[in-house]
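As the next step, I selected for study one protein, both as residues and as discrete backbone shape codes, as given directly below:
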Amino acid sequence: MKLTILGGGGFRVPLVYGALLTDRAEGRVTRVVLHDLDAERLSAVTRVLAEQAAGVPGAPEVSATTDLDEALRGADFVFSAIRVGGLAGRADDERVALAEGVLGQETVGAGGIAYGLRTVPVAVDIARRVARLAPDAWVINFTNPAGLVTEAMSRHLGDRVIGICDSPVGLGRRIARVLGADPGQAWIDYVGLNHLGWVRGLRVAGRDELPRLLADPELLGSFEEGKLFGADWLRSLGAVPNEYLHYYYFNRETVRAYQEARQTRGAFLRDQQARFYTRLQDPGAAALAAWEDTRAEREATYMAENRETAGAGERDADDLSGGYEKVALALMRAIARDERTTLILNVRNRSTLSVLDAEAVIEVPCLVDANGAHPVAVDPLPAHATGLVCAVKAVEREVLSAAESGSRAKAVTAFALHPLVDSVNVARKLVEGYTGVHPGLGYLK
């Protein structure tokens, strides 16, 4: 099988290739094509992959190209992990938002909207090309904002595009571990949008073990989300939120921490990865070792400002192992080999959540087989979650409308309606600021 990775010069590509190297069954990926607009980054990542594959019998063949059509033609799976504007764009997203006193995180709030406005037109172009050049391919999208981008692509690819995220998987794994359960044997009742979801139950052998967790302050304080949100708040919710909801529940504290930080997350990653790619310009550098060192620092500093705000301390070592590449491989395996499994994915709602229409992309457990991902029926959301989900989905729809029409007014509406912006005047300043720094937003008139 041919797997095409868009954003193939990206830093996290070796995670995917490393997972492929462990897959020895029939019907596996035999050819990987990396596509990126930056030839130097492609060269660097190709070197890392070559060192990963050294001594591994039957390792998937790797090639690289800057020609998008060539990369897509004949693909069985397309993994979309692009970053429109690069990490410099992400750093600008944060800077412009923080100057107006609002959050600039890459998927949440003003930063997520700006990133979506830049990314949706590019993602739609990719979807149209896939439909023309590889109509039988399955697109696995990890491009952020993952739910929004998946919904944009689904308008051209239908159910053949599926969004993935490692946050729900990591959350379920941590809860199961705290409860002494095998994550592989637990059913995680998770529902929401990408980076806006809640675990409402964790069933082991038919029994919901989440009430036991919520009733035990010591257990609640022993894992990442318990430290972030606090035991009292989790008991008030009667659920465990995705870590990204910390930006909503503790917004003022988080914005202040980001404003006071020496460097934003995007600026840190921009500088860190620049050092990595510069290092690999030396043909004698050990590519894989350089990548592993950089990745360890990257993972250890993830959501550092949020943890500092909550007094949560350092991340647990067990939480530094990544995960989205495992979700991607499990999804590909289930479809290609009809190995039925259950995964939490971003898919079209159909009738899963009655408060949203059928085309809205949501994040829920899905049964996966050769015919794709099928959302599992879930209980209605509680009122507090319904309000947030509907508000953020309305914002996403305004982003899609702005990207399709080129309407500056629609872009202002998207910012103004977001719960973490909530000001028309600030929204106008954000649009002015973002269009001033991002050439990719020049289409907004």
